[in-house]
Amino acid sequence: MRFKFCAFPFGKSKSTATFPYRGKRGGGATEDRISNRPGLDHLAYDFGLRGLPHVRDSARIWGCLQGVNSLGPCQGARKGHGAEWRLPPRTLRLHIRGDLITQQGKRPKMQAIGLCRFSYPALGGFQVAHENIQDRIAYLYEDRRLEERFQLLETVALPCLRAQTDPDFSLIIVIGDQFPKHHEKRLEALIENLPQALIHKEPPRNQREVMKEILNAARINPAEPCLQFRYDDDDAISVDFIEKLRKATSDCASLIGKNRTVAFDWNRGFVAEFGADGIAAVDMFRQFYVASLGMYIKGNCAQTIMNFAHEKIPRYMPTVSFSDDAMWVRSHNGFNDSRQKKVKPIPVQPLAPKLEKLFMDRFAIDVAQVRRVFSDG
User: Could you tell me which residues come within 8 angstroms of residue 282 by beta carbon, excluding any fewer than 6 positions away?
Assistant: First the structure.
């Protein structure tokens, strides 16, 4: 088995640095507060960029992350800011197939990083309240709930990632350090043929603080810009999302050149229910939903997509919305965190054959696999 688990050795932050923000902060989200450590370069939370001038803290995390499905060590180092680019040694041992593969002498594509929380018992970040962290862990790791999460991960969330027309991205799947061992093995098996995916363990910590640290740590070179996206374990994105995100960045070059961060939103998709009978869905228009929402971050900027509540992101940066058809699937299921309280139901209809084909073509979701997996469960 090629998989290893480990945790970043980050201690609790002793101070914070607040960056200027655009607009009034609301809703309790710490949009612009960035974890910091006195005397350390906060932007140097990287994997193994030893010896580079901008890295003051490389020894702290050197070699701590042994990537899942890792590529072998790369030789060379970044030189200057021109077209010449050679990969640093042992950079970002995240097994990123696309981000690390580049023709010699050519600069690689802008790094694209996805973050998925898989039943991670964060302090905060849930709409369902619990008395203490032990109650939250018991709720998240309850067998019936995890069975549904695995069914949705297998049939909805992962197939579209394997089918991306642009495979140059990485996905960090965050789990708790008390995640049951037998479920760890099941998760390992599900991502074994997704070389872009990494499993990362953390103890219970503040939701935004830990996710921001992980994303900043995953940047190969913090001095270079990157793309980031959040990913829910029960949703799907279109098979061309990464391709479209990169194209949008290119099309909006003038806009991103004038801003530290820019968000890109695709606002049309489906709400769907999945079960042994197949798929029932309805098409929807919704802006700034988690699925198919991406963010450009300038080099030497420590903000991340996890600094912001997704629906409030237009308050803090320029945003560009696209109305392309069929860009996401939002699943409604028995354990949606946002639907545990009383909410208005959304009526759905069983998919007709034409829509079954669309779900396969746009999201790599196979209705036959959905029926089989949910029937076996």
Answer: 270, 271, 272, 346, 347, 348, 349
The parent domain of residue 257 ranges over 26-376
Taking a C-beta distance cutoff of 8 angstroms, is the pair 52, 223 a contact? no
**DSSP-based three-state secondary structure for 49:** coil
127-155 tens-digit pLDDT? 666 678 898 899 999 999 999 999 999 99
d(CA 177, CA 128): 21
Report if residue 206 sits inside a domain.
yes
Place of tokens 């998760």: 187
Give the strands of the sheet with 236-237, arranged side by side.
Answer: 236-237, 328-331, 268-275, 278-285, 349-350
* Number of alpha carbons in the 13 Å side-chain half-sphere of residue 323: 1
User: Can you tell me the distance from the alpha carbon of 84 to that of 105, in angstroms, rounded to the nearest whole number?
Assistant: 6
Count of domains in the chain?
1
Let me know if residue 69 belongs to a domain. Answer: yes
In a domain, 270, yes or no: yes
Tell me the per-residue pLDDT of 77-115, one tens digit each, with 9 for 90 and over.
223 323 223 223 223 334 333 343 333 344 578 999 999
**Separation between Cα atoms, residue 192 and residue 187, nearest integer Å:** 9
**pTM strictly above 0.85:** no
Q: Where are the beta strands (DSSP E) in 168-252?
A: 170-176, 197-202, 226-230, 236-237
Contact 316, 308 (CB under 8 A): yes
Instruction: List, in order, residues 6 or more apart from 146 with CB less than 8 Å away.
Output: 119, 140, 180, 183
